[in-house]
Amino acid sequence: MTKKQSFATVFESLVMPHMAMLYKVAWRLTGRPDQAEDLVQQLMVKLYPKTGEMQKVEHLGSWLRKVLYREFVDSLRKRARRPEYFPADSSDINNLQSDVDDPEVLAERAGDRERVQRALDLLSRDDRTLIIMHLLEGYTLAELQEIFRVPKETLKTRLRRARARLKKNLSQ
Amino acid sequence: MECRDIREKIFEVIDGNGSVEKNEMLSAHIAKCDLCRRFYADAVLDRRLSRTLRDLPTPEPAPDFATTAVQYAVDIHRFRRRRSFFAGVAVAVLMLVAGISLVTGLINPAIQRADVMIPVGGERTVQIMIEAAAPRANAKLDIAIAGDVMLKGYAGRKRLQWQTDIRRGKNFLALPIQLHDSAGGQVNVRYAYDNAEREVSIQVRAEKTGAAQT
């Protein structure tokens, strides 16, 4: 076995056990199977030269998950073509009031998988990303701040707006 | 107890699957504090959403997706090393590997560059390999030609654009490049799918030939 083959084999043995998890996370972020595959493949190409570094990572699954988030956020940032990913403007927050005022009704609807999936699909890609990372993956504001590299207040505003949109979608 | 403490308690109760209503102190505070009541409603909603989101079904990727994606990463890096060896060397056929599936989501195209040497008045076929992890419908191809080069069969054409479907796996685009003058030229191949773009820039230079060669 050549040195290059060994390197490839090591890379494969490191990432293969995590591919299903990475695809799942990528799908949640993108909401589209083809984009999820693209995102994971894009990540693999970037990771291959870092095989040595990956060998030293203790919790590789968590590490890979975080790198995937960064990759996704970077691609969003490039797509947005703006230096700051999140606009701080919250002027439309009042227009995002839910049609359903009763918190219990909303909470009940939040337990309906189909309804939640629909509400999620109606969100913009940016909002969806925040909701998934915060509510599903459990990232705190401080962690999100590190990943998105934006001021905490901006992030809070953005998150508040994303949740308001999700609630509005749930109430429809 | 301050609102901040109340909210911490609310989290504790919800995380422990308890009921705030059963906690006298919390329910009394919530009954009279609008902000904490809203906070409590949001916290319940968030927890419920988190659970539901975790339960949402995820579609399965293509059966060989994991193997293909990993192998692709290995191949593309191996090729990059190999390409640097061939760069600038006169080869009859130059293979460029590019992966359209890699760049979905990127606006700024990743540009690959390569040099190809052709004798003045001669022709070489450059093959561009586009390897895709999944089929792509209506990918846009755009070829721009500059300088004293042309594509055989397209005399005088400086721009060629068309749409095509890309199959899963390896796709080949053969470009029969002719060089007319020692100044050389350039052929840029750009292909796009959705918002993804990739560009291959081929710099055509004149190959120095012996006296016997025309």
SSE class of chain B: alpha+beta
* Largest interface, Cβ cutoff 8 Å: A-B, 51 and 42 residues
Counting DSSP E segments of at least 2 residues, the number of strands of chain A comes to 0
Alpha plus pi helix count of chain A: 10
User: Number of DSSP helices of chain B?
Assistant: 4
What about the largest sheet of chain B?
5 strands, mixed
Proportion of residues in extended strands of chain A: under 5%
The H/E string of chain A reads: HHHHHHHHHH
Rg of chain B is: 30 Å
Number of strands of chain B: 9
- N-to-C terminal Cα separation of chain A, in Å? 60 Å
Largest sheet of chain A: none
Mean pLDDT of chain A: 81
Enumerate the spans of chain A where pLDDT stays under 50 for 5 or more consecutive residues.
81-91
How would you write the strand order of the largest sheet of chain B?
Answer: 2-9-8-4-6
* Helical proportion of chain A, percent range: over 70%
Q: Oligomerization state of this entry?
A: heterodimer
Mean pLDDT of chain B: 73
Helix content of chain B: 25-40%
Structural class of chain A: mainly alpha
> What gyration radius of chain A follows from the Cα positions, in whole Å?
19 Å
Structure description:
The complex is a heterodimer of chains A (about 170) and B (about 210). Chain A is mostly helical and about 170 residues long. Helices cover about 70% and strands about 0% of the residues of chain A. By secondary structure, chain B is of the alpha+beta class. Helices cover about 30% and strands about 35% of the residues of chain B. In chain B, β8 and β9 form a beta hairpin. In chain B, α1 packs parallel to α3 and α2 (about 25-30) packs across α3. Chain B is rod-shaped and about 90 Å long. The relative contact order of chain B is 0.14. At the A-B interface, α1, α2, α3, α5 and α6 of A face α3 and α4 of B.
